[in-house]
Design brief:
Elements: H1 3-19, H2 23-27, E1 30-37, E2 43-45, H3 47-57, E3 65-78, E4 81-92, E5 107-113, E6 116-123
Parallel strand pairs: 1-6
Antiparallel strand pairs: 1-2, 3-4, 4-5, 5-6
């Protein structure tokens, strides 16, 4: 599988874990020392802190709506480090777009760890 295809697979797993409210699947995508900043500006440092937050907020979060995730751009900083820009669109549970809600514009910094891409850092930003 090509590197861009592997990265798209990771982003698809982010979408799957969010849409299906699977905290453990989501948490597994992070490096142990990852930094994650939510769309509301909350900074989480380390997989344990990310896990604690995710286990609190993800279950029940998708009762009315969710989001789709699309890789918009990949910049390979090195062969094993990539900056990945995501287009995150709000959708109803049946997949139809929610036009009156703002999109998200996450940036993931990925590193290849033991042959697998992992999230080293992430910053989600709401598009106004």
């Amino acid at each position: 599988m090509s590197e861009p295809a592997e990265i798209e697979k990771l982003v698809a797993t982010v979408q799957h874990s969010q849409q299906n409210e699977l905290p453990e699947e989501f948490i597994s995508l992070f490096r142990e020392d990852a930094i994650w900043t939510t769309a509301h500006g909350k900074r989480l440092t380390g997989r344990d802190e990310i896990a604690s937050f995710t286990r609190q907020v993800l279950p029940g979060a998708m009762k009315e709506a969710t989001a789709s995730y699309e890789v918009a751009h990949i910049l390979f900083i090195r062969p094993d480090v990539a900056a990945v820009k995501i287009r995150q669109r709000p959708v109803r549970l049946d997949g139809t777009p929610i036009l009156d809600q703002n999109e998200g514009s996450p940036l993931y910094i990925l590193s290849k760890e033991d042959g697998e891409w992992r999230i080293a850092a992430g910053q989600n930003t709401i598009v106004l």
